[in-house]
Amino acid sequence: MIPESFIQELINRVDIYDVINKSVPLKKAGANYSACCPFHNEKSPSFTVSPTKQFYHCFGCGAHGTSIGFLMEYQGLSFVEAVQELAKIAGMIVPEETRDTDKPQQKIIPGMQEALQTALNYYRAELKKSPRAIEYLKGRGLSGQVAANFQVGYAPAGWQNLQSVFPQYESEVLETIGLVVKNEQGKRYDRFRDRIMFPIHDQKGQVIGFGGRVIDPEDTPKYYNSPETPLFQKGNELYGLFMARRAMRDACRALVVEGYMDVVALAQYGIEYAVAALGTATTPVHIAKLTRQTDEIVFCFDGDNAGLKAAWRAAMNALPALTDGLKLSFLFLPSEHDPDSFVREFGKEAFEAKVKTALPLSQYIIQHLSADNPLQSQEDKVRFLNDAEPILQQIQAPRSRLFLSKRIAELTGVSQDEMQGMLKLPNIQRQQQARPKQTRTPVSIHRRFLLMLLMRPDLVSAQDSSLIKGETDEDKMLRAGIEAAILYPSSKPAAILHHMQDKSDPKLMREVERELQLLDESLDVALEISGARKQLIEMRQQRAHTNLFDTIKEKSLSELTEEERALLRGLGNSQKNSM
């Protein structure tokens, strides 16, 4: 794990304005900066960035977070990748994570990234020299501009062409990143030969591997990818994602296809929100990366047997990552077409019309399970339930699982309760009914104290923790804030909020971040926090008195302690003074 102290220092050191302004041009708006939100379409700016508080907030769609959160949402990076990217900006070194010593780790060798970029430059230059490769791409309807956008290249025929750009051809780096292969006799040769080369980028735009497609249809295999390397794991990467992020957000949709040429050909026709899995079925990691960009994912497959099998694998792999806010659907093209050929023959409008007819995941599952099951006999229905059981058990999204299980119960002629008992699934409806409703005061003294400590954590003391005795969500949130302020008294609001996020209710945190963005920065924070502290002390004393009076009511006068007698005398005096 990356130490929390390092993350705090990183957020404090990096200026969120510099991070966001590189991708979204910001304009000065009073004490803050504003822009049209990069996470939803809008005409007037509702996206604000606070240099003082070091976080962003959109009043239109609710997007919010720190500089780390922005990189995760906008560039689709994982948490660790976002921290590493910010550390580069700040000139800091990320402490090594504690790893599972039982799991072998691939060796990171200096120079790997540079070698891949050198190879890319070579392949792109070779494309310009090869009329055969250029004619092939033109024959596939590819323009020079699109080929340039995707940095398409060509690996010429021959065994050791890369030796011309890598004098150290025997280097371990070239073998580790998959550019060079060594046979059993120890002879080294280029992995990619006489292939159209598609660079694979990570979500920062850096080359991490290649995919090569044959020109001669007689050659095999048709597609050939880089092997798994320290930089490239095919189960984690999607071809074209770096290029497609903005288009996905604009279209509110991601399209997952099977091949590189499908992605590039669709982009040629203005469908720029497509990505491809890299020689493997779609994984939960793929789904997680795509859901950072959009809430709708359409899987598009050829209508042949291979396409049908790939679609089912994708559906099953997606189940653990399914959420109630995510829409997954499946599109099957006619068996004689793939996305590349379909869009070239019928055009963009016809293809997107097809996309809109894609089967929702629930319908696709039912259709697949009943394809060879007439559901007529008791045995048919038992088999249907047996096939559905492992699928339902993998779905963690409560509403999605509820409605799918209802449909399965209808088709098999059993009640929901009967099916629930047979399949031993958790009773989602009962869980939802049992979930307690959260009640909170919109503007409470707890919230006020928290807002002030976010602005001046150095004004908080260890004694403040004793003021919070309750266990409501607001109590827990304020307690987490006080703890963070004591640990990091010099931190900015964004850093304190980051420390609190795993210990506080997410909805309350979003409300606090919104209120913080609207907070008047001319406030005398020291005076405000002193007043809030005084009110919390009075509230604590009032609770103590109330509890003491409740105790006194149950005692006779002779049983009272001196403290209880003094409390009664004080109450009597206050009543006389009020007469």
TrEMBL record:
It is an enzyme of class 2 (transferase). GO terms for molecular function: DNA binding; DNA-directed RNA polymerase activity; zinc ion binding. It holds the Pfam family Zn_ribbon_DnaG. Its cofactor is Zn(2+). It catalyses: ssDNA + n NTP = ssDNA/pppN(pN)n-1 hybrid + (n-1) diphosphate. Transmembrane segments: none annotated. A zinc finger (CHC2-type) spans 37-61. HAMAP family: DNA_primase_DnaG. RNA polymerase that catalyzes the synthesis of short RNA molecules used as primers for DNA polymerase during DNA replication. Belongs to the DnaG primase family. Contains an N-terminal zinc-binding domain, a central core domain that contains the primase activity, and a C-terminal DnaB-binding domain. This is DNA primase.
